[in-house]
Structure formats: C-alpha cells, structure tokens
Design brief:
With about 220 residues, this protein is an alpha/beta fold. The radius of gyration is 16 Å and the shape is globular. The protein has a seven-stranded parallel beta sheet with strand order 3-2-1-4-5-6-7, sandwiched between helices. It comes from Streptosporangium vulgare.
Length: about 220
Amino acid sequence: MTKTALITGASRGLGLALARSLAADGWRLILTARGEDALRAAAAELGALALPGDVADPAHRDRLALAAQEHGGLDLLVNNASGLGAVPLPPLAGYPADTLEELFRTNVLAPLALIQANLRGLRERRGAIVNISSDAAVEAYEGWGGYGATKAALEQISHVLAVEEPDVAVWWVDPGEMSTAMLADAVGAGEAAGAPGPETVVPTLRRLIADRPDSGRVRHE
C-alpha cells in the first residue's frame, strides 16, 4: 500500500530535503508552504500534490485535511513550517506582543490543529507525527526567547500527545543548526552558510520513520 505524507514548509530547507527522500521511495506526498512558486516547482519535480498557503489559516488547514482524507488518511505528518518572529532578534523585555502572538499561531497552534484534523486517519493507519523543534526550546539563548518559547510549547504538546495517543508515534526532533534561510535571517548569511545543510538531518528522520522507536524527543547528532 502506498504511504501518504503531509509535509509543511516543504518548498525549501528540511521540508524539501525530506520530501525528496520520501518521493524517491515511492511515498505519495502532500506538500504545503507559503511560497507558491517554489512549492509548485518542488511538487512538479517530485510528482507531489502542492497546496500553497499559510498553516496559520484555518481554511488552509481544512484544505490540507481534506486532501489527506481523499487519500485515506496520513501515514506521516511532518510539522516543519515555522516562523522566526521579530528580526533582529529582540530581548524578551522588548518583544512585541502582537508578533509573539502571531508566532504562537504559526509554531504551536497550527501544528496542533493539523494534528487534530488528521488524527483519525493517523490512528487508523498507525501513523507517525514529526514535530520539528529546536535546541532553543531547552536552552537559554539571548534573543531567541520568543522563538524558543514557541518550540518549548510545541515540545510539551508533543510529549502529552505521545502519552494520549498510543497508536500514533510522536517524535519532536531537534535538528540542530542548519544552513537555511531562517538561520540566515537570524544570524546573517555568512554565519548561516557555515552550518550543515538540511539534507544532513534527513537520515535521522528516515530512521525514525523506518524503525519506529518509542515516541519522544530526538536530537540529531
């Protein structure tokens, strides 16, 4: 039976790297991201379904869930889409409340809502959820308080889901520093260019999917 995965933030970075790996193994892919042109190019390359949009938009999440249902549900949901928040990275004492609220909608509420919308199919197919986190969720880095708070919340949601949903594997994955557009926005293009490429994290994700270890936090080494 062909397996189906929904990957958010799939037009570039880690989402695209994982999509390429899964496509090579015959997975049916539903890809979403805000950058429509890049997403459609990726989907054309991989023979995937492209549904551009913002995961923070409830109507877009409904479209994603409907697409998954049309394929009989998901075997894998990868919550990779993420916002950085205010740039340059501000101290918490001056963090704009409206920006932080928007960041929580994207990084926390949207992943949970997508899980809720697809949970029935994930249960039936004994599927898996991968929530992409960060070391900023567990470490105190100056300027990363807003982003880190959202990832800490996502990790706690993941942890509780792992307890509540024994038929679904739930992994919250810290990929480490990667050379991505988001990191470049945060620390500058020069420093970001020295980080490992996102494709280096894909083997860790593929091992999780293939071996299905117990739910839990996973740190890519």
